[in-house]
Design a protein that fits this description.
Layout: E1 14-21, H1 22-33, H2 50-58, E2 70-80, H3 88-99, E3 103-107, H4 114-132, E4 138-142, H5 149-156, E5 165-171, E6 177-178, H6 180-184, E7 189-193, H7 195-201, H8 224-230, H9 243-274
Parallel strand pairs: 1-2, 1-4, 2-3, 4-5, 5-7
Antiparallel strand pairs: 5-6
Helix pairs in contact: 2-7, 7-9
């Protein structure tokens, strides 16, 4: 997979595409940040703006990378298959994402637990096509299916500093890294985003620009987990972190306070330059 289309550019600029399993990240955010609220979260809690989460990963590079060397190539979002008849709000939002330039792939709705595999396969297809087309030099993956471990390890290679893949995970206030894929692949750099970053990228239906209007909930009707979230119930835990991950998560929350202001200004500057 690490063929010519995936080679590092000679001048050092690294084009990065971000691949997000929206359904997983929605439930993971509820797992990470809803428990301390004291009451069942509203159904919208856990929704986020994909482009803002992608930008957060781009502007918070690993220690061996410079932020000036990183450029967002494209945002890819994987969602369960939606239709205007069954999920009119979700279908409308998917159409808006596509008009905004995001690549959206709809995974078939299958009986549990196959629906998780279906989204993982859809994400791998998106990654393979992006690499084959020369869209990017590296990728960021926001997904939790452990079946993606071979993909991650193949792109990490021999040295972490030369890896062509990074991961995204929500970190609960207690230090839990809510991502089983990240826990299974410690060799890959993981963006451990805490409550501060989530607040910055969350979408609660508040007024935004036309590009970021209200985002619907995308739930899997075939899964008990999805139906519980739609009712406002607490979803089941996804994963926990070891002591080393908790220490790094604590450090990431301290870094959040500084970085989130920087990338917020960076996003606004980028939008002004492209208008």
């Amino acid at each position: 997979m690490a063929g010519p289309a995936f080679a590092e550019r000679s001048h050092g600029l690294q084009r990065i595409s971000v691949f997000l399993d929206y359904q997983f990240l929605y439930h993971a955010a509820r797992d990470a940040f809803a428990a301390h609220r004291g009451s069942p979260p509203a159904p919208w809690f856990g929704n986020f703006v994909p482009e803002l989460l992608a930008q957060a990963a781009i502007v918070t590079p690993p220690p061996w990378r410079k932020r000036s060397e990183r450029q967002l190539a494209r945002v890819h979002v994987v969602v369960p298959q939606v239709t205007p008849e069954s999920s009119p709000r979700a279908a409308t939002r998917v159409d808006e994402w596509r008009r905004d330039g995001l690549a959206v792939r709809e995974a078939p709705r299958l009986a549990a637990p196959s629906w998780r595999i279906a989204r993982a396969v859809a994400l791998v297809v998106e990654v393979a096509e992006a690499l084959h087309n020369g869209e990017c030099d590296a990728i960021v993956v926001g997904a939790g299916e452990p079946g993606l471990l071979p993909l991650v390890r193949s792109l990490v290679g021999g040295r972490r500093e030369e890896a062509r893949v990074e991961l995204v995970a929500w970190v609960a206030p207690g230090g839990q890294v809510v991502n089983p894929l990240a826990a299974a692949a410690p060799e890959a750099w993981c963006h451990r985003f805490g409550a501060t970053t989530f607040e910055r990228v969350a979408d609660r239906g508040r007024p935004r620009s036309s590009a970021f209007s209200r985002m619907p909930i995308l739930t899997d009707g075939s899964s008990e987990r999805g139906s519980a979230a739609a009712r406002g119930g607490a979803p089941e835990p996804i994963g926990t972190a070891g002591a080393g991950e908790i220490a790094q998560a604590d450090q990431s929350r301290d870094i959040d306070q500084v970085r989130v202001r920087r990338w917020g200004r960076w996003v606004r500057k980028g939008r002004r330059e492209t208008q």
